[in-house]
Fold:
Amino acid sequence: MSDQKFEPKIVGFLCNWCSYRAADLAGSARIMHAPNVRIIRVMCSGRVDPSFVLKALSMGADGVMIAGCHPGECHYLEQNYKAMRRFGMLQHTLRGLGVEDKRVQLVWASAAEGQRLADAIDQLVADVRELGPLQWAGNWEENGERLQALEDIVKEHEEAMEVTA
Ligand code: FES
Structure:
């Protein structure tokens, strides 16, 4: 499905130590990418509970990006391997709910890879644009409460911001 007027709404859970900094770098280096992503900073991809993703989708996101440090480079040792395992299970669950694989993507980008992250954002937005709206919920741009609730996802899970080695 394609709709010229459809602008995908994407939530991005970005690891503080790498992908969030890659996004920062992309911004400061004026690397262009689609503006459709609302970024939520987490301390590690391994702390992205699958419920965060389900909640984002249920509240109006058309797609979700989880981005972290490259395998072997996680600041909390092997937590991004946990993210990989969780991602596989999440994809399995989402498939069962009728959610296409390309709506939720796991990306690795180091702090120096602003272009790589920008390209991944563009790819995700293009993939979701092709799929069309998820339509699990109303358009969040028309509903300030939904927008605020999305911002509160991480606040509701404060423990995700406190990672012990
Ligand atoms: S600290 Fe970045 S993925 Fe773990």
About this structure: Residues 76 and 165 are 5 Å apart (CA to CA). Residues 15, 17-18, 44-46, 68-69, 74-76, 79-80 surround FE2/S2 (inorganic) cluster (CB under 6 Å). The radius of gyration is 15 Å.
